[in-house]
Amino acid sequence: MNLRNQLDALCGRLLESAQLRTHKYFRVAVPHALTGQSLVALVGEKGHADDEVEATHLATLLLQYGYLFPVIEPQSQFQVRDDGTLYRLQRPYFWPSHAAQTDNVEYAIYLNKRLLRNEQRHGLEEDEIEAYNKLAELLAHMWGFITAQAELQLKQQKEKKKADKVVYDSEERAFWRIRRPGTANCLEQHVQKVEKRLRKATAAGYRSIVERLKFSIKTKPWLKAPKASGDMVKWVENLHDHDPLLASSQQISNPWITDETTLWTLNTDAVEVPTERRVKRWGISVQELVKDPIGRQVLETFLESEFSSENIRFWIAIQDLKYSTNAEIEPKAERIYEEFLGPGAPCQVNVDSRTLERTMDLLNAGNPRRHAFTHAEEHVFTLMSKDSYPRFVKSAIYKGVLTAAQQQGSKRVGWRNFIFNMGATKKPLGSRQHKTSRDDSHHQQLPKQLSSDSLPVAKTHHNR
């Protein structure tokens, strides 16, 4: 349907802009026509084609679908020629989109009308004679009505001007040439069937095939396909248990099937204890980890233990910069540069000189700085994914959060407590419990919710 609407719109623009005039073909006057050169140029202009080849191809599609037709040479029905060949645009009444189906009665009336006219100029061809005989046998019970309709239409056509009669006769012939009963609508045919008729065997075509085969032998795509298929299967298997449509929870009903929204509540950004499935998803890839707000907080806690928390904070600041309003771009970009990249920055990130130079070029280009830190962002994220993330998955911090998620059904202990109380053992009854001092709580407090607006993150103290 989309293709049909586009072709109708294009052909409508052609009818409005085409300068149709009478052309001389030897000693014959051909009214309301245009040459192939003019047609290709007009299709390229109204169809917004990039070059002449694309314009010729688009005009050929219109010819094949029946929106235009050759006037003198019906055999050139499948290819538009960029020369002096004369073409005529079809009126909307004969467009394939407006005449979705054709029946035997209409075709029989058309053939009878052709026979009632001068047989030398309007005689039937061999295939039309065969179709006429079949229709006369099939529609014998209503042949009188068909003959009467043919005579009435022929009488009305004789009242027209000579030029109009010539144009209408050619349009009607072109329509029935490709829309005979029993043939599929050209707009409903698969595009490969149309292209197969348009394609001709040429030396250039064979050279293109040879070059494509040589490239295939060089790159060996059949060796890469099994690896890509294996990676796809592995990726689907890893995410199978985390898809609520494929693997439903044993304790919580699937919100995609029922009206229960408990699963959404347990997976909100500010939940105290994340679910076990949610924490296990962090171990699939670093992308899954940084997508989760709680996962980013846990990762920053781990990076603080390695004295490299500026990496995740720099990455989060850039994500916030990408989706900020235009008025906020410049101050946030300056803040990120002074905080992480500038000389003497308090949270200097580790980027190489080449990446820093490319980032500075983008910052000094004068264009909007929304994507000026792209190269530095890729460098820092690659550093985290290859260096810090493998250690994070094996760290006691991640295992502590996973333990908190596994025990949330029986023990309401937040993941923050598990991070800072790992390895703590229960004391015997009657023993004196150690009270946490203000200094101890200073070391145990986690950073705030991460966002670029709160950078650098300041640590707060607990009140007694």
Automatic annotation (TrEMBL):
Every RGS domain range: 285-402
One family from Pfam that matches here is RGS_DHEX
Q: Which SMART domains match?
A: DEP (SM00049), G_gamma (SM01224), GGL (SM00224), RGS (SM00315)
Q: Where is this region: Disordered?
A: 426-464
Per its UniProt record, what SUPFAM superfamilies does this chain match?
Regulator of G-protein signaling, RGS, Transducin (heterotrimeric G protein), gamma chain, Winged helix' DNA-binding domain
Q: What's one GO MF term for it? A: GTPase activator activity
Mention any one GO cellular component term assigned to this protein in its UniProt record: plasma membrane
Keyword terms: Signal transduction inhibitor
Q: Which GO terms describe its biological process?
A: G protein-coupled receptor signaling pathway; intracellular signal transduction; negative regulation of signal transduction; regulation of G protein-coupled receptor signaling pathway
Query: What InterPro entries does this protein map onto?
Result: DEP_dom, G-protein_gamma-like_dom, GGL_sf, RGS, RGS6/7/9/11, RGS6/7/9/11_DHEX_sf, RGS_DHEX, RGS_sf
Q: Which domain of life is it from?
A: Eukaryota
Provide ranges: composition bias, Polar residues. Answer: 444-454
Q: What is this protein called?
A: Regulator of G-protein signaling 7
Species? Mesorhabditis spiculigera
